[in-house]
Every structure is written in structure tokens, then in C-alpha cells.
Structure to design on (50 residues):
């Protein structure tokens, strides 16, 4: 393997680990709501506390 292949593989591994950590935190309810991204209508924002 060449150096670029190894670095690319390590980079993908690290990105995958970050996504896994974020998914686990989301499933545990540890992440806060993001008001900047998503569907922002009166109906969806009124049910944000449920």
C-alpha cells in the first residue's frame, strides 16, 4: 500500500467513528436540538418540547 491509501483509510475510519459517536449520543438523548437545520413550520416547532 502507498502512503496516500493508508492516510485515506485512516481518515475514513476516523469519520466513521465520529458518526458512530454522534449516533450513540443522539440515541441516548444527549444532543441538543438544532433550530438551524430541518423543517421549521409553526406545527413542527410547537411540538419541539414533546
Amino acid at each position: 500500500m502507498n502512503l496516500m491509501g493508508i492516510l485515506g483509510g485512516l481518515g475514513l475510519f476516523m469519520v466513521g467513528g465520529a458518526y458512530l459517536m454522534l449516533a450513540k449520543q443522539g440515541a441516548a438523548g444527549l444532543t441538543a436540538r438544532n433550530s438551524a437545520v430541518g423543517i421549521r413550520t409553526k406545527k413542527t416547532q410547537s411540538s419541539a418540547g414533546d
About this structure: The longest helix spans residues 3-28. The two ends are 52 Å apart (CA to CA).
